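Anyone else keep sequences and structure tokens together like this?

Example one:
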Amino acid sequence: MKKLLILGFLTIFSTSKAQAGLISMVTGADMAGLLVTVTFGNGDTQSDVWESTGPESGGVGNRVWSLTQEGDTIGPIASSTFSGAWTLTTIRSIESILIEGINIGLVFDTVFGDGSGTSSGHAFTYDTALATVTTTYTEHYQDELFYSMLLTGSNPNYLGRGSSMLLGSGSFDFMIDVDIIEPELATTEVTAPTTISILALTILGLIATSRRKTK
């Protein structure tokens, strides 16, 4: 009887709680809606929303600055072909760039490997020839996954406001893997009536077991 009761409640708990999955293969085209904010060397800020520009590419920006990405953000696993890089291009010095994915369920997968049970990621890497860049992740989702990434840096060749300039002018390439959180899958969801039915069947089973023992 106790085993049946425990089994019934475990069944209700495990089936009524739908699990969210992760889409690990994400390209620039999949990131439409991503919010990007740049802070220029004079303190001015501009924000824009990411748009798809091709089958595997997307970007954001204007004639002054742009951030683009093409291909799987994790890059090639075993290939001599370099792909998946993000490219920041600007004609003004940029102090920082904030990339926020919470509004579209996009998270930065900050660790290479799969030690936490999430899909394998790609830690932040960049071309060190242009600047020293510091990465700050915020809005934690779970394990090594974060909704927001802030890039700040110093460029010794820039003589403007302070020394914390990510880029004077030109382009800056970096790598960071992103995943997208899937909505709760319909096939794993159990609606309230179904959960009630499971509970009713469990109770009926307990009653039947009790009657057999009393006869």
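And example two:
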Amino acid sequence: MKLSFILWLAQILPQPAADPLCLATTVYLEARNQSELGQRAVAEVALRRRDSGQWGDSVCEVVTARKQFAPTIVNPGLRMKNLEAWQQAVEVAFQAQQDWRLPPGQRHEVVPGASHFAALDLANPAWAASPRVATIGDHTFFRVQRLSPPVPTVTVAALPATTQRMAP
């Protein structure tokens, strides 16, 4: 199964049905060789970013934001051959999304507050001096910025104009 096919499929699926596919693809590409806990941490960063709205309003928009996650960094012709790892990534993605639907105080957060991660033996990002949240496997998770959900905007309907005048 090619990465390009999965990304194409995610584009034609309606939202939010595409999000688990995008999240599983990211978990597979970023952490298929990691423990389930490490995979969950990767999923959590993507979900936290989605909630913030800074990289997009859906998981698919977040993980395909330019140079943020593996789906936009690796060759689209990459064949995802490890079916066992794919199945694990799908399970992790669904479990993470289910847990993330809980109110923030009730979620089982693996890397609380983490907004970024890197395999420091492969990359040295400029933000690597940011506060470290955890190291799981070969990924280090950072709080580069505090992410919180965007504040909802409230639209107030205009009140109908009245013809009565207020007495002075």
